[in-house]
Amino acid sequence: MELLSNETISLRAPEPEDLELLYHWENNPEWWGLGNTLAPYSRYLLKEYIAESHRDLFDLKQLRLMIDYRPTGATVGMLDLYDFEPHHRRAGVGILIDPVYQKNGLATEALGLLIRYAFSFLKLRQLYVHIPVGNEASKALFTRCGFTVTGILTDWIATEDGYSDVLVMQRINK
């Protein structure tokens, strides 16, 4: 199969047709605590983001890939490489699967494709992720994909109940 696809999943660059999906996903306040979003994104800003997505990882220091479910053609989520550091050959990873498509193994397949792309084509040395300690689903996903816990960031993110610790998980390309 191709580098960014298998029998089930295909990863691709954002297209203008993705605007409404991105608007819906990026503006869901339930997910803002998992990243650093503090306010909604406008359609205009997301349209500009899509228009700039042709610029490469070395230029933007981030890369977003949409996740398509090949049997139906539905876009089921997105993956991000962020905080790309070319000198140290590392990047952070973020993933979102629409709740309608969760618990079907699609996140595992998509993350597997991203890892293969990052390590074989981009020649990255390591990928890392920050996961709130209570996010069992994300911990399980990244563990299945070969990431290990390498540290804890104490009181790292603000929550409704105060502060939460965050696990640092890494996968090293040996």
TrEMBL record:
<dbReference type="InterPro" id="IPR000182">
    <property type="entry name" value="GNAT_dom"/>
</dbReference>
<protein>
    <submittedName>
        <fullName>N-acetyltransferase</fullName>
    </submittedName>
</protein>
<dbReference type="InterPro" id="IPR019432">
    <property type="entry name" value="Acyltransferase_MbtK/IucB-like"/>
</dbReference>
<feature type="domain" description="N-acetyltransferase">
    <location>
        <begin position="9"/>
        <end position="170"/>
    </location>
</feature>
<dbReference type="GO" id="GO:0016747">
    <property type="term" value="F:acyltransferase activity, transferring groups other than amino-acyl groups"/>
</dbReference>
<keyword id="KW-0808">Transferase</keyword>
<dbReference type="GO" id="GO:0019290">
    <property type="term" value="P:siderophore biosynthetic process"/>
</dbReference>
<comment type="pathway">
    <text>Siderophore biosynthesis.</text>
</comment>
<dbReference type="InterPro" id="IPR016181">
    <property type="entry name" value="Acyl_CoA_acyltransferase"/>
</dbReference>
<dbReference type="Pfam" id="PF13302">
    <property type="entry name" value="Acetyltransf_3"/>
</dbReference>
